[in-house]
Specification:
410 residues, alpha/beta, FAD/NAD(P)-binding domain, eight-stranded mixed beta sheet, six-stranded mixed beta sheet, 36% helix, 28% strand, disordered N terminus, binds 8-demethyl-8-dimethylamino-flavin-adenine-dinucleotide
Length: 410
């Protein structure tokens, strides 16, 4: 329903106003729509931009099953590729873990996030879903009451006030949902003190595994995306501009850190995208503030070291969607009341493993700095523990099973 006021602000309404059309917002929107819940998605970007925004690629089995359960997995089941091995390269040699034969014997599905977003968008629109592209949510008001509102502005500068029963904040770390939290909301934050230069290369994968190389010059990583495109990571100094290194320097550095001389050359290609990622983690607690509920990166930001972000986003979106359906369609608020507690259990487990990965992969782990740290003795201590952890992972079947279970799980 649209109603023009005597001011230039329009008024519209939906039972659930979803902020953000990433994996969290679109999974949520699709499930709500399938259950007949009136909802709208407000998305700052235009559709074309969303469909090419390359980020994650490794989907956990739980994510695939969730999307399958709601009829949202056709594209990834058709085009995604099973992936079940990773390789560590260190000063003392390398070793490979076929994690699909360890732990619960599960594998990832490699499917680029922009393809997943494209599929979820198409599904939502085909089902008649309402979405406003190019529309930025500015603030959520009255979240402590039963009729919260969201002010939003479109690309032409027109503002609309959306009235809702619930607002789902799926608009990431810098979105309006986080900005609208009450002053008492807790935000647990950790800066790992490490930055990665994230690269997308127009080159086929060079390994049939995920590659993790630890090196005294810093971490380097290799992750398949498609047969034509590969993601690489290079640890870089905090504040390094994304374009600081020439393409040749990037490839030379990757060759050096990935120890191509010992393990075989990397397949070089044009660098299509560069992003500097500061490894940071945070968790908002609780995830519900009255009628405002957070999911995905808005709820918890996780360092990309263990590829958990998009997977948590889908998990939380399903829990939130089903809880909203219970409340709005059946008058049962129990699941909504329990939403924050259930999600936080998954979030902290993923944070713990991701933190463990950060410390496994980096020689100079900023998270360990503290009073009296930074000394040679402190660095030696950290480095020796890191090597011991890698050695345990190389030799202990129990440790490998633990790794596999956490690596593919959420
Ligand atoms: P998204 O995907 O950021 O979507 C949020 C959406 O909200 C919109 N938005 C707004 N809309 C309206 N009003 C506002 N005020 C708004 N503010 C923002 C944005 O335009 C956007 O469309 O959040 P969501 O849905 O929570 O999904 C989270 C994931 O995108 C994220 O966790 C992952 O990409 C993290 N991540 C990875 N996760 C994995 O599970 N596996 C991986 O392999 C993986 N690799 C990565 C990654 C993240 C990376 N970067 C860029 C940090 C690799 C990289 C390089």
């Amino acid at each position: 329903m649209t109603e023009r006021q005597n001011t230039s602000t329009e008024r519209e309404s939906a039972d659930v106003v979803v902020l953000g059309a990433g994996p969290a917002g679109l999974t949520l929107g699709n499930i709500l729509l399938a259950h007949g819940i009136d909802c709208v998605v407000l998305e700052r970007a235009e559709r074309a931009a969303l469909q090419v925004r390359a980020r994650a690629g490794f989907l956990a089995p739980h994510t695939v099953r969730t999307l399958e359960r709601h009829g949202l997995a056709d594209g990834l089941l058709r085009h995604g590729r099973a992936h079940g091995a990773c390789e560590f390269r260190t000063d003392t040699g390398g070793f490979r873990l076929d994690y699909d034969r360890l732990g619960r014997r599960e594998h990832h599905t490699v499917y680029p996030q922009q393809d997943l977003v494209t599929d979820l968008l198409a599904h939502y629109l085909d089902a008649g879903g309402r979405i406003r592209f190019g529309t930025e949510a500015l603030a959520v008001q009255d979240a402590d009451g039963r009729r919260p509102t969201v002010d939003a502005r479109d690309a032409q500068g027109r503002t609309t006030r959306w009235q809702a029963r619930y607002v789902a904040g799926c608009d990431g770390r810098h979105g309006a949902a986080r900005r609208s939290l009450p002053p008492g909301a807790l935000r647990h934050h950790r800066d790992h003190g490490i930055s990665w230069l994230g690269l997308l290369a127009e080159a086929p994968p060079s390994l049939d595994t995920v590659g993790y190389a630890t090196h005294r010059r810093g971490f380097a990583g290799h992750m398949a995306r498609t047969p034509e495109v590969t993601r690489y990571y290079l640890q870089c100094g905090r504040g390094t501009p994304a374009d600081a290194w020439s393409e040749e320097r990037v490839w030379d550095e990757l060759d050096l850190r990935m120890r191509s001389a010992d393990h075989g050359p990397l397949r070089r290609g044009r660098i299509l995208q560069r992003t500097v990622v500061d490894l940071r983690s945070d968790v908002v607690e609780p995830l519900r503030h009255g009628s405002l509920l957070l999911a995905g990166d808005a709820a918890s930001l996780i360092s990309p070291s263990a590829a958990k972000g998009a997977n948590l986003a889908v998990l939380e979106a399903e829990l939130l969607a089903l809880a909203l359906v219970d409340d709005l369609a059946h008058g049962d608020a129990a699941a909504l009341d329990d939403y924050s507690r259930r999600c936080l259990a998954h979030i902290w487990r993923a944070q713990e493993f991701s933190h463990w990965m950060v410390r496994l992969l980096h020689t100079d782990c900023g998270a360990d700095t503290g009073p009296g740290s930074g000394s040679d003795a402190e660095s030696f201590f950290h480095e020796s523990m890191r090597c011991s952890r890698l050695e345990s992972l190389r030799t202990s079947r129990a440790h490998q099973d633990w790794f596999a279970e956490n690596y593919v799980g959420v």
